[in-house]
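USER:
I would value a second opinion on how I read folds in token form. Give me a protein, with the fold worked out from its sequence. Write it directly below this note and I will take it from there.

ASSISTANT:
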Amino acid sequence: MTTKEFSYSLNEHSESLRPFAMRLTKDSDDANDLMQDTMLKAFTNRDKFSDGTNLKAWLYTIMKNTFITRYQQIKRRATFVDTTENMHFLNSGEVLIENGVFGSFAMSDIWQRISLLEDCYKVPFLMHHEGYKYYEIAEELNLPIGTVKNRIHLARKSLKEQLSVYKAD
């Protein structure tokens, strides 16, 4: 297969790889990067491809291996290895250990805000929080299922607005 024919075949299969890249990375920019790396590796290693074999499967394998390699590199970079004698610098770096006080304040504030909700919103919300299904809540409260879903949605929305100070950046 000539270089031109190989390039044409790569181009034909590139769009079928995009959903696989999205499934692996779960981000469109990372998926585009993975697609580009895959195509580059395939093109630079075209001499290793055997004519008559499945090009699409070969590309999927390259993409999967590229993703795994990149993931392992990121994990290695994030690992802190202490090389000091007697490990004097264990708390260096950007690692913080919380003692749970902030979590208690947050939970206290959350439950306080829930208690301030009107009963028509609070009761379905708490039942859903306890694990009841929508239809079970509807039967218990003798309400249409759409009303139950709407009230839970409005309760969540209200709590989200009131508790925006806890929003993670």
